[in-house]
Design goal:
The chain has 470 residues and is an alpha+beta fold. The chain folds into three domains: 2-233, Rossmann fold (3-Layer(aba) Sandwich), CATH 3.40.50; 260-333, Uridine Diphospho-n-acetylenolpyruvylglucosamine Reductase, domain 3, CATH 3.30.465.60; 342-469, no CATH class. It is built from 17 helices and 22 strands. It has a six-stranded mixed beta sheet, with helices on both faces. The protein has a four-stranded antiparallel beta sheet with strand order 9-12-11-10. A hairpin with a 5-residue loop joins strand 14 (348-351) and strand 15. Helix 10 (230-259) crosses helix 12 (274-289) and helix 12 (274-289) crosses helix 13 (295-307). The longest helix is centred in the middle third of the chain and has 30 residues, at 230-259.
């Protein structure tokens, strides 16, 4: 629907208005006009006011100005009318315009994503393409206002957002600038009235079943009634928090550069202030995965670090796991859990699924049978009764509840591994050597009581050689 304010002519007014004052403040503070500008023009009040105010500002700065419009083809004739309106006002102002028509509904269905997410990605990809193809333009200007920022702050607050969420909409992000970021929606509408600017209104903005629309229509007006000027207050808060965030992130980058080397010393992380620890971990996650983690995920890592116990593992999005063991914290790929296996063990070389070897040799024949292998320096070994070996032995993967009696006590394998500080990887691959009665031996620990070498018969030595040593 188009709201007409009876524009009387096509002249660009020089009339002073609080919108132009705030736009000048934002563009100067964040150096938004240091190159040509493409205005993201929807035809709404915000974007038309932005275009109208930027025309003289860009002329004074000596930078070119153009517009871009995306017809998402979601609202049929209304969407086509919005496109026609944008083309007309650009023609009135003698400003070039580029238009993209994309069936967002079909694209969202094809990719299995939501309409809003798909539409946003289409818009910003189009803007980026225009800048790439037209080097005279350096920036994309969107019409986000202080009111939009206030809505974003409240929305992030309801989701438990941290300092980044409360910073709201950034005035500058990469080559995206928001010249109206200090301007309220009421000031935009007044500017349109003063300058007789027409604009279109998206009827879906009034549908309060959407969270953001509800915040806009119901929550913020109540806050304004109670306290007045909530959007301006939110802008001040966001600006102050951005300053604090920038300092913390700069400090985190410095610390990251000092501490990171394919991981961290866990003691060094524990010595940091928690606000820096969380950001250092965020930087490490981004370095390792190329993605950004939510603070709630890294909070779990920080909590584990604060407890002080090792080893521990925390699984993060993007098939990533944080592992902390033996004083080192590292990010790794969260590989599929090991596949359970069972391998019959015979005299000689027995290759396990991970490539490691269990070598079973009769006592006294090691050097003769296997002379070339460095079994003495590169393995863990145990000596077993020959009769036990002859009755049948097999190796299997570790199982929940594994326990056996050794050294006069029944011991849980999990506790033995914890006490010995075995790494997560070693726990996954370590073989459990068994016979019909249960566990005989686990590399690194004792033989089951009664199953060791007797010295009165033909005993065997069993060597465990890790895959990397084979």
């Amino acid at each position: 629907m188009k709201k007409s304010l009876c524009r009387q002519d096509n002249r660009i007014t020089d009339k002073e208005h609080i919108l132009t004052e705030k736009l000048k403040k934002a563009t100067e503070e964040y150096k938004m006009l240091d190159g040509g500008i493409i205005v993201a023009l929807s035809g709404g009040a915000d974007s038309h006011a932005l275009l109208h105010a930027l025309i003289p500002a860009c002329a004074d700065a000596g930078v070119p100005l153009a517009c871009a419009h995306v017809n998402h083809m979601l609202r049929g004739a209304d969407a086509d009318a919005d496109e026609a309106f944008c083309r007309r006002i650009c023609a009135d102002y003698a400003v070039p315009i580029e238009v993209l028509r994309t069936d967002v509904a079909a694209l969202a269905k094809k990719e299995g994503r939501g309409f809003e997410e798909t539409a946003r990605d289409v818009r910003y990809a189009f803007f980026a393409e225009l800048v790439e193809k037209n080097p005279q333009y350096k920036r994309i200007a969107t019409a986000h206002t202080a009111s939009d920022n206030a809505e974003t702050v409240l929305f992030n607050l309801t989701r438990g957002g941290g300092i980044r969420g409360l910073c709201g909409i950034p005035p500058v992000r990469d080559n995206i600038v928001r010249p109206l970021i200090y301007v309220t929606r009421a000031e935009v509408e007044d500017y349109c009235a003063v300058n007789s600017l027409e604009y279109v209104t998206d009827c879906t903005n009034a549908e309060t079943e959407y969270s953001r629309n509800y915040i806009r229509a119901e929550v913020i007006p109540r806050l304004d009634t109670l306290y007045g000027g909530f959007a301006n207050a939110a802008s001040r808060m966001s600006r102050n928090l951005r300053r604090d965030r920038d300092y913390l992130e700069c400090e985190a980058e410095r610390v990251f550069g000092e501490l990171y080397s394919e991981g961290f010393e866990s003691a060094a992380l524990r010595a940091l202030h928690p606000a820096i620890t969380a950001r250092v971990l965020m930087l490490a996650f981004e370095r390792e995965t190329g993605k950004r983690a939510e603070s709630v995920h890294l909070d779990a890592v920080c909590a584990k670090l604060a407890e002080g116990g090792e080893p521990f593992s925390v699984y993060l999005p993007g098939d990533t796991v944080v592992r902390c063991e033996r004083g080192r914290l590292c990010f790794a790929s969260a590989a599929e859990p090991p596949i359970p296996y069972r391998v019959e063990i015979n005299e000689g070389e027995n290759i396990l699924p991970d490539g490691s070897v269990l070598l079973v040799l009769p006592d006294g024949e090691e050097k003769i049978t296997y002379p070339s292998h460095k079994v003495y320096n590169l393995s863990i070994f145990a000596r077993l009764c020959g009769d036990t070996i002859k009755k049948g032995v097999f190796a299997r993967s570790r199982e929940n509840g594994d326990a056996y009696r050794t050294g006069g006590m029944t011991r849980k394998l999990k506790k033995l591994l914890n006490a010995a500080q075995y790494t997560v990887r070693d726990r996954d691959i370590i073989p459990v050597v068994c016979d019909a009665e249960g566990i005989l031996w686990v590399p690194g620990f004792g033989v089951r009581d009664g199953a060791g070498a007797k010295k009165d018969g033909k005993d065997y030595t069993i060597y465990y050689i890790k895959a990397e040593n084979c």
